[in-house]
Amino acid sequence: GIFWSGPFKVTQEDNFVLSLSSKEGNLYFIRVQIRQKNYGYIIRFSDTRNIPPPFILENYSQMPIQYLQCSISPSHKHCIKPAQSKAYAWDEILSEQKLRIFVEDIDQSVVYDPAIQNEQLKLVYENFFYIALYSTF
Asked: What does each C-alpha distance from 116 to 17, 31, 93, 107 come to in angstroms?
């Protein structure tokens, strides 16, 4: 099945991208346009093939990066594998629009606020490599 993101207002004009996700973790996006006409509102849903996603998250590290919108359930977290990128739109349009980014199993995260220009965030994790040498004869 597909999970719908949270509610959105239909009492004011707006234009945004709605995020839908599957149980398998696939993300789908729908463009929503709300326009006032006379005494009512027209809500138009369309595909997003011809517009870029609101965000593109890129993982240049060697570790999977997890992320979720602040103030929503941790069950809605997403993952970006190493050296990959993913399109993203807010899971909850009416909730706080900040993104928590973390590496799994490490008790450290950063919060990204897109309203702050040129924000410098640092997420540091230790990456241990173990090499074992054995004699073969």
From this structure: 21, 25, 18, 24
Structure tokens at 126: 């230790």
The structure's pTM equals: 0.78
The model's confidence at residue 134, banded by pLDDT at 50, 70 and 90, is low
Q: How many CB atoms lie within 10 A of CB 70?
A: 15
Q: Is 61 helix (H, G, I), strand (E, B) or coil?
A: coil
Cα dihedral 67, 70, 74, 76 sign? negative
Residue % of the chain over a pLDDT of 90: 29
Quick check: 93 and 14 in contact, CB under 8 A? no
Q: What does DSSP assign to residue 1? A: -
* 34 has pLDDT over 80: yes
CA gap 79, 82 in Å, rounded: 10
d(CA 61, CA 71): 26
Residue 12, C-beta contacts closer than 8 angstroms, at least 6 positions apart: 34
The Cα–Cα gap between 41 and 12 comes to: 8
